[in-house]
Design brief:
globular; alpha/beta; 9-stranded mixed beta sheet; 7 helices; 234 residues
């Protein structure tokens, strides 16, 4: 399978998604948007993965490449490609589906549980999980659920944590994609986000038992990615 990744900053790459793709024998290509690299036509990939980043979906004047990126996401959805958005990527996908993206009531950074909704617990991608599920978070904005999509996971700090649209589109506000290196890089590059608000953990907690926690979230991500891939491989 041909997977194409949209990367917004140097320190948020495909991480565990790329590791999964390599283990499964899929090919991965990347457009580094912060380097103004060209976007491919939809015909050149089977799966579009949209990564996170510290910018907002609304920052088109500061990051004009967002306009072309949104166009590609919309085209990929319309063409029936698999589409996975993570954090900022999920917000971009939601916006392309007509949803709103706005500041979240709470900034959410750190390790906390997400709970599956009844629709999530019944959905084939998530039905095998025991809720609640551990996840890593780093976001200050949130999305509304697009019309026709299913809300599949929520947390105390942020109601809309994950959605599924049709048979081919998934948005995850949380990070199962992060490796220990990803989290260390976020602390190094986005430390200004680490205030003392209710749902923001200090660096010492973000880094606690990091290899074990990331191994657990990687295993959960693998199950979702395998389920998405099966849609194409059937």
């Amino acid at each position: 399978m041909r997977i194409h990744v949209l990367q917004h900053v140097s320190f948020e790459d495909s991480a565990n998604i790329g590791r999964w793709a390599a283990r499964r024998g899929h090919t991965e290509s990347v457009s580094c948007l912060y380097r103004r690299q060209a976007l491919p036509p939809v015909s050149r990939f089977d799966w579009l993965v949209v990564m996170g980043g510290p910018m907002s979906v609304h920052d088109e004047k500061r990051h004009p490449w967002l306009v072309e990126e949104k166009r590609l996401i919309a085209e990929a959805i319309s063409a029936g490609r698999l589409v996975l958005g993570v954090c900022l990527g999920a917000q971009l996908v939601a916006q392309c589906l007509g949803a709103k993206v706005k500041p979240s009531r709470h900034r959410e950074i750190g390790w906390s549980d997400i709970s599956l909704t009844p629709r999530g617990a019944a959905h084939p991608l998530f039905a095998s999980f025991d809720s609640p599920l551990r996840a890593f978070h780093w976001h200050g904005e949130t999305f509304t659920i697009p019309r026709g999509a299913k809300l599949v996971a929520s947390s105390k700090a942020c109601r809309n944590q994950a959605f599924v649209y049709g048979e081919n589109v998934v948005g995850l506000q949380f990070h199962w994609d992060y490796t220990p290196g990803s989290i260390s890089a976020m602390i190094a590059n986005c430390s200004e986000d680490l205030d003392e608000s209710q749902y923001v953990q200090p660096p010492v907690e973000l880094l606690r038992e990091l290899p074990r926690r990331c191994k657990e979230t990687q295993a959960m991500l693998d199950r979702v990615l395998d389920g998405m891939a099966a849609k194409v491989e059937q």
